[in-house]
Design goal:
Helix content: 25-40%
Radius of gyration: 17 Å
Shape: globular
Distance between the termini: 37 Å
CATH class: Alpha Beta
Largest sheet: 7 strands, mixed
Number of helices: 8
Length: 224
């Protein structure tokens, strides 16, 4: 029987050509930081990092890494896994990791759902899904990352009491996310969608949404 692969929840993999430095980083640094999902997942994901960490956080779709880098610099005791298939954004993050000497970041440049399936149950303390592609056209809705199946995987890998953060400037997508999280029975919403915690930095994409007049929803849930 032929296995049916899930639809891709992301668009293009690359835009403009990479600089010589970014090509070097993709060839030298990426293999050192990339998760190898062929290996068995470690019993303790904190062991994935070169430096001792007390917990692991996951960001799905980090773009150019603004938010991930901000969090990593302010939480040196946390190990970060970042998933991003867009090569130009990934290479930008790699450059910042090298420049700033960050040792507690691992990455995956494929479908984040593969990482969710690989991670052990209850192994992640916090998950960020910030401004995922909303796929707004009716025929595209099935490509949205935040689906009932993905919510089930998010619930599986989050520790009890762990936090899931989601942001979108697409009101329909935000409402869908809220509905799916509530329907799963695994999450308790801890915000009304308007307030921001102190450690939620503004990103370039968020600034663009605001300048274009699009209001963002900021959602947070606790794993029950």
């Amino acid at each position: 029987m032929t296995e049916t692969r899930p639809l891709r929840s992301y668009g293009r993999r690359k835009s403009k050509p990479l600089s010589a430095r970014k090509e070097r980083l993709m060839g030298e640094l990426l293999p050192r930081l990339r998760l190898d999902l062929v290996d068995r997942p470690p019993a303790r994901p904190t062991s994935l990092f070169e430096t001792p960490v007390k917990e692991v956080w996951l960001e799905i779709g980090f773009g150019s890494g603004e938010h991930l880098l901000w969090q990593a610099e302010r939480h040196p005791e946390i190990g970060f896994i970042g998933c991003e298939p867009f090569i130009n954004g990934l290479s930008t993050l790699l450059g910042e990791v090298e420049d700033r000497g960050l040792a507690a970041i691992r990455v995956y440049d494929g479908d984040a759902r593969e990482v969710l399936a690989w991670l052990p149950q209850g192994s992640i303390g916090r998950i960020f899904i910030l401004y995922p592609d909303p796929w707004p056209k009716k025929r595209q809705l099935k490509r949205r990352l935040f689906s009932a199946e993905t919510v089930g995987q998010l619930a599986r890998v989050l520790k009890p009491g762990g936090e899931l953060r989601f942001a979108s400037d697409d009101a329909d997508y935000a409402e869908q996310a809220r509905f799916l999280a509530q329907q799963s029975g695994a999450f308790e919403e801890t915000t009304d969608g308007n307030d921001l915690p102190a450690d939620w930095p503004e990103t370039r994409y968020e600034r663009k949404a605001l300048s274009d007049g699009r209001k963002s929803a900021y959602l947070r849930w606790r794993r029950v």
